[in-house]
Amino acid sequence: xxxxxxxxxTTSVSTTTNVNAGPRAGTSANTGATAAPAVVxxxxxxxxxxxxxxxxxPRLDLAKTAPKVFRALIGFDTAARExxxxxxxxxxxxxxxxxxxxxxxxxxxxxxxxxxxxxxDRLHMVPVWREARHFFTDxxxxxxxxxxxxxxxxDGGVPDDVYARxxxxxxxxxxxxxxxxxxxxxxxxxxxxxxxxxxGTDPR
Length: 204
What we know:
Layout: H1 62-65, H2 67-80, H3 86-99, H4 103-115, H5 120-125, H6 138-151, H7 160-169, H8 172-194
Helix pairs in contact: 2-8, 3-4, 3-6, 3-8, 6-7, 6-8
């Protein structure tokens, strides 16, 4: 797919995971809100605000200031990963985080992937998976291509051949969950970037 071949290795932000990967373990970020039930985020979710990159005041903590919204995002993330192999979940989250330049999520999901047993070789090859096809299965390659197309949708939509290939290797239900996971990691990437989450600050 010529339209969506960005292989940037810059880091990205996190959502689910892993990372990204069945339902994630909760982070220890502040997710409480006055008069609202405590939120236990999915592993890898961007929970708090970070320092303003321009050196100004810290940015808001979405979990604290909009707990209902945050819980809805966690529910979406948790549902999206149902039935998907943990390795596939992490690969999708890592690749989207590369493309969105989200260092926070990239750090989180690569670490989640390592803890789940992912090899360093494969982690290093994710940004250049087309040139290292033998490191990944047919399903993983199809999911990575779809992840790139959806993440970079403004560059040319989701090409028919990319979608068709994913539909060949995933049944309809699996494909729906793969697509949902791509949507959730893109959302978490934007949460982390907008609130200036700092890579490496997640206690996990």
